[in-house]
Design a protein that fits this description.
Blueprint: H1 2-25, H2 30-41, H3 45-69, H4 75-102, H5 107-130, H6 143-160, H7 168-175, H8 180-204, H9 210-233, H10 236-256
């Protein structure tokens, strides 16, 4: 019980910090939470991905509802993207759970492969975040590109738990001429659905740490409002650079730990 209390308290503190960083910088939660779960809680990478997926779902539900009510979601863009993303998300998450349940002797290998995959996605996310301010313009909506990129991102998010904002937003910007406000709204709704599907499958396979998930949610609920004064005072550009450096360092620590 003492260990449980310490674990939950640690998760609350971690959620507080990460929630604040997300609120201040706009950088997605998965790319920050997963290395924290692996390095600070010693969770297997599959449990970290599953826990992060449900965390992302639960923290973005209210936001997605607000965007839907505001009628800023382009459902044509969203649904075509999901046509590609939903099948690959389900198949990818099921493949991980299937391997762990039916080939336990290969469990260490699966964990190691996913660990390197997550590290690669983390480093790629740094590049995407860095260039996210570059304006991409298109004068058409490419359904093929939406489905194709959706399929790829479905695989990436199911295997890594990363990609809600840093991958979906650029993909939508490359496939449609929608304004950024609409693209952000679409990306949030898409991320909720993909993360929810992935999280449910990981949960069914026993790849969720419920105590830590609850602690993270409680901590982020505290950290987000507490960070608002900091967000208004500090330079977002410098904070984003700090988070990018933090991601790179975390990826390096995960690689050599």
């Amino acid at each position: 019980m003492e260990y449980l209390s310490f674990e939950v308290l640690n998760a609350i503190l971690t959620g507080l910090v990460i929630g604040g960083l997300i609120n201040i910088t706009g950088v997605g939660g998965g790319v920050l939470i997963i290395p924290a779960l692996v390095l600070f809680f010693s969770l297997p990478i599959t449990v970290a991905v599953g826990t992060a997926s449900l965390f992302s779902t639960l923290t973005k539900i209210v936001s997605s509802i607000n965007h839907i009510i505001s009628k800023t979601v382009n459902w044509k863009v969203t649904l075509w993207f999901l046509v590609g993303a939903v099948p690959t998300t389900i198949l990818s998450a099921l493949s991980v759970v299937y391997m762990l349940q039916n080939y336990p002797e290969q469990g260490a290998l699966v964990q190691q492969i996913l660990r390197y995959f997550v590290i690669g996605v983390m480093l790629f996310s740094v590049v995407m975040i860095y260039f996210s301010k570059q304006k991409i313009s298109q004068d058409y909506l490419s359904i093929f590109r939406l489905i194709f990129l959706g399929a790829i991102i479905g695989v990436v998010m199911a295997y890594s738990g990363i990609g809600g904002g840093v991958l979906i937003i650029p993909a939508l910007a490359l496939s449609t001429s929608e304004r950024m406000k609409s693209i952000v709204s679409c990306s949030i709704v898409i991320a909720v659905i993909i993360s929810m599907l992935s999280g449910i499958i990981y949960a069914e396979g026993g790849q969720i740490s419920w105590n830590i998930l609850i602690g993270l949610l409680v901590g982020s609920a505290i950290g987000i409002p507490l960070s608002n004064p900091i967000r208004h005072r500090l330079s977002n550009e410098k904070l984003t650079q700090f988070v990018l450096l933090l991601i790179v360092i975390s990826a390096g620590m995960m690689l050599f730990s």
